[in-house]
Write a structure and sequence with these properties.
3 helices, alpha+beta, two-stranded antiparallel sheet, 23% strand, four-stranded mixed sheet
């Protein structure tokens, strides 16, 4: 089963994810995010926009590769994969 890892600040909003391994069934990135949302309701509302696409400052990678399909999240996550969720830093 794939593992999901994320930046620590997300635990402030979703304490159900803190201090536990997050493993979910393999599938598309969209399916992985839905599985995380089942553990911590509201999670997808935080990382996805109203169309279901990744929000502008949220990035995901599968293993060492940034997710290409930010709109429909169709990138596949292998059984032994790791999904990393992080926010991009911006500013001047």
């Amino acid at each position: 089963m794939p593992t999901v890892k994320m930046t620590r600040h997300l635990f402030r909003f979703f304490p159900a994810l803190e201090n536990r391994p997050i493993t979910v069934p393999a599938g598309s990135v969209a399916e992985i995010l839905r599985a995380v949302d089942e553990i911590a309701p509201g999670f997808t509302d935080y990382v996805l926009d109203e169309r279901g696409a990744l929000r502008r400052h949220v990035y995901l990678s599968v293993n060492d590769t940034i997710v290409v399909d930010r709109e429909t999240l169709s990138d596949r996550v292998p059984e032994d994969g790791t999904v990393y969720i992080f926010q991009a830093l911006s500013g001047g």
